[in-house]
Structure formats: C-alpha cells, structure tokens
Amino acid sequence: MTQNIQPKLNSVQALRGFAALLVLFYHIGEQMIHSARLQAGGGAELLTDKWLFLGPWRQGYAGVDLFFVISGFIMVYVTYHSGRSAKDIGRFIYKRIMRIYPLWWVFASIYGGYFFITYGIWSSPDLKGGTPPDIAYFIRSLLLLPQDSKPVLRLGWSLIHEMQFYLIFAGLLFLPRKWMLPGLIFWGGVNLLGYFMNFQHINAAASIIFSLLSLEFIAGALAAWMIIHGKIIKPKVVFLTGALLSLGALGFYTDHSTQLTSWGRVAVYTLPFAALIYGLSLLEIKDNLSIPKWLVLLGDWSYSLYLSHYLVLILIIRIAREVKAYLPETIVESFSLGAPGLWDNIAFAFAAITLSIIAAGLSYYMIERPILKLARSKRPIQ
Fold this sequence. Notes:
The chain has helices at residues 10-39, 56-59, 62-79, 86-119, 135-142, 157-172, 180-196, 204-209, 214-228, 235-252, 264-287, 293-300, 302-323, 329-335, 343-377. It contains 15 helices and no strands. The chain has one domain (10-377). The chain is mainly α.
C-alpha cells in the first residue's frame, strides 16, 4: 500500500542547500591551497596553514554526491503517482531540461566568453583532457554532452551525470509502477557489471553510463520507494545514524587519489547520505518536523549557488589583487591570500561565503525563477 506524498519536502530542500554549501567550501579550500602553494614558491602548502584545509574544506566535493542521492530520491518521490503515457514522460523530460539547461547556459556562456576574450580559446588554458577547447568543445559543453575534457565551467561534469540519470529514469517511467523496484535494481546491476568489465573506458559516453556515481542516484531512488510503499524503519535512528556516518566521512575520509572519482566516494558516502535523506524526510512526513525557513530558502537557491559561486571566488581574488597596491603593507602581509597565519583565510572564507550566497539569491530571483515561470507557461506538451 502506497503513501500519500507531500508536494514539497522542506527537509530535502534544506539538504540541497547543505550540499551546495559543501561544494562552496571545497572550492574555497581549493583556492586557499593554491594560493598557499604559490606563496611557498610552488611547493607544498605552508605547514602552519595545513590544518585549515582539512575536513569539509577538502571533503566538500561530497556535496555533489549528496546532490546525486537527492536527485534520485526526488525523481521517484514526485513521479511515482504520475501518469505513464508518452505525454506524461515527455512533460517529465521537458521539466528536467528546463530545470538544468537555461541557467547552465547563462553561467557557461559567461565563462566561455571570458576565456575567449582573454585567451582566444573557449576554455581555461589549464584545461585537462583530450578535447581541444575549440567552438565544437564549447557547444558540447553547452549541450552537456560527454567529452574527454570537463565542460567550460568545470563543475558542469556533474550536470552531465544528472542528464544521464534523467534519461535512464525516463525510460523506467514507461514500466508499470510495480516494476519500478526491479527496474532500479536491474539498472544498478548493469552499472556494476559494466564498471567491473571496464566498459567505462570505451569512450566519454561510456564513462558516464558506467560510472559508479549512478549508484548514488539509485540509492536515493530506493529510499523514496521505501517511503512511498510504507517501508518505515525507525526514522529517528536511521536519521541519526546517517548524520553521524555522514559527518564522520566528511571529517575523516581523505582519499584524493584517482579512486576519488570511481568507487571510493561512492563506497563512503552513498549509504550515509541515503539514510540521512530517508530519516529526515520521514521525520517531516510522520512527525511534522519543522525546518527553519532560511534553510529551505538556501535550498531554493542551491542550483544558483552551485553554478555562480566559482565566478564569485574568481572575482574576489581578482579584486583583491587590484586593490593590494593601495593598502598598507602590514594589511597586505596579513590578509593577502596565501600568507602565513589565519587572517587571510578567515577573511577570504567570510567574503566568499557571504558574497556567494548573495550572488545566489540575485541569480535565483533575477534569472532562475523567471526562467522556470516562463518554462511552465510555455510547456509544449499538454
């Protein structure tokens, strides 16, 4: 027997905001480390600053893993009782496209335009991978098509995975509802088989299809399936267990080898995040758990925060370099990013977090929300 669902879960929105903050923290830490290395003459980061770059600053990449688990949860949660006709599935795909692409086009175009004006190429000169940053590369980036190099705005790699998730999940929607669980399990089995047979090395598309990151999406989908079917397992215990395991992983998992993007992060974060979402959402559904409005608002802004924050970090660093010549030497020595001590990192982190959240709010209200309203009013499939 299935459960009635709420149209919006504030708990899940709050987790979206938390995930976006984790990614922001990761990129702040990245800039701290890069600046410290430059200050040290290209060597290891300064010894006195090393401890600053541990914990969520370096494990913040896991915000992407949390996003993937949330995506799987939401897809099952909001579509389980929807129609299964071609028109219904067409509407699902349209909504997903309009949710992802327009805002992505805005920020990817800003980056592409900047790189082309500055360097005469369509990406950073530091781009790694086999695809040259020409106009074809830029178009593939805009379309979120798999290619050997990361997109022009590099964190768009996660959106390529998202679109693959949505397309496969749209195929599952053609199945009768009772086959959703076997379909998800079959998808996970094919994913694991392809990965262990090294199919992900065939080409760029196969690297997405057979990435173990799909298991995170599937885990979130299974958590939603359990809730919809009334499979209730002590929400408070599951939530607390998931929260403790998640915090432990964020604090202590430090594998930054190539395994980071294969099985390592999936093994460490998938189940804790799935338990976290399962327990927290049930506490809201069953026990009317109240979520602070500011956390829900941050969740609403999460996609804008995800796409805009890297631009904010770059602008802060560029502006700081320009004004350095006009500041007293004592201030420059203490607050110039990469200097020994705490003050430069504290100032940068405070400015980055504050301005990134402000920019996310502006992006949401001025760009993202108007686009979503327009998409709803112009929906082609009725």
